[in-house]
């Protein structure tokens, strides 16, 4: 059985997808981009964008009854791999102990011209 997860504390989907889906104790969070849900605007700078993305992920985790400790896998997409170290620095602030498995890719372009997008899977 699948359950759609939605919170107003994270940005609305910018396409035909859900913020997250929970199924059999696993939460699949769609790739989050750095839109501030209060303003609807993209924040500027790679560190600020990474922080906003992870705040959005945290809001969705919270809405579904999960925490960052439940995260088992992240996929990070960067529009420029030169930003990897800065993204990684902020990312590490959210996963200080027992970080999840992760992949990071450089891509040609991301939605709305953002610098970073992060997809997340969490398990209870």
Description:
By secondary structure, the chain is α+β, with helices and mostly antiparallel strands. The protein has a single domain, classed as RutC-like (60s Ribosomal Protein L30, Chain: A). Helices cover 24% and strands 30% of the residues. It is built from 2 helices and 6 strands. It has a 6-stranded mixed sheet with strand order 1-2-3-6-4-5, covered by helices on one side. A hairpin with a 2-residue loop joins strand 2 and strand 3. The protein is globular. The two termini are 16 Å apart. The mean pLDDT is 97.
Which outline best applies?
globular
> Which value, in Å, is the CA radius of gyration?
13 Å
- Beta content comes to 25-35%
- Taking the alpha carbons of the first and last residues, their distance comes to 16 Å
Kindly report the average pLDDT value. Answer: 97
Q: What oligomeric assembly is this protein in?
A: single chain
CATH superfamily: RutC-like
Name the structural class: alpha+beta
Q: What pattern of helices and strands is seen along the backbone?
A: EEEHEHEE
Ranges with pLDDT <50 over ≥5 residues? Answer: none
Query: In CATH terms, what is the fold-level topology?
Result: 60s Ribosomal Protein L30, Chain: A
| Spatial sequence of strands, sheet with the most strands | 1-2-3-6-4-5
Summarize the main sheet: 6 strands, mixed
User: What is the domain total for the residues?
Assistant: 1
- Secondary structure: number of strands: 6
Q: What is the number of helices? A: 2
CATH class category label:
Alpha Beta
- Percentage of residues assigned to helices: 10-25%
In the CATH hierarchy, the architecture is: 2-Layer Sandwich
């Amino acid at each position: 059985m699948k359950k759609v997860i939605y919170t107003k504390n994270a940005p609305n989907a910018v396409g035909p997808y859900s913020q997250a889906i929970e199924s059999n104790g696993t939460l699949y969070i769609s790739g989050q981009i750095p839109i501030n849900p209060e303003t609807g605007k993209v924040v500027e700078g790679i560190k600020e964008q990474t922080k906003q993305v992870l705040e959005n992920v945290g809001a969705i985790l919270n809405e579904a009854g999960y925490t960052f400790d439940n995260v088992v896998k992240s996929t990070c997409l960067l529009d420029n791999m030169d930003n990897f170290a800065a993204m990684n620095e902020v990312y590490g602030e959210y996963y200080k102990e027992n970080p999840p498995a992760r992949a990071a890719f450089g891509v040609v372009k991301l939605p709305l011209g953002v610098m970073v997008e992060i997809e997340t899977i969490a398990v209870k």
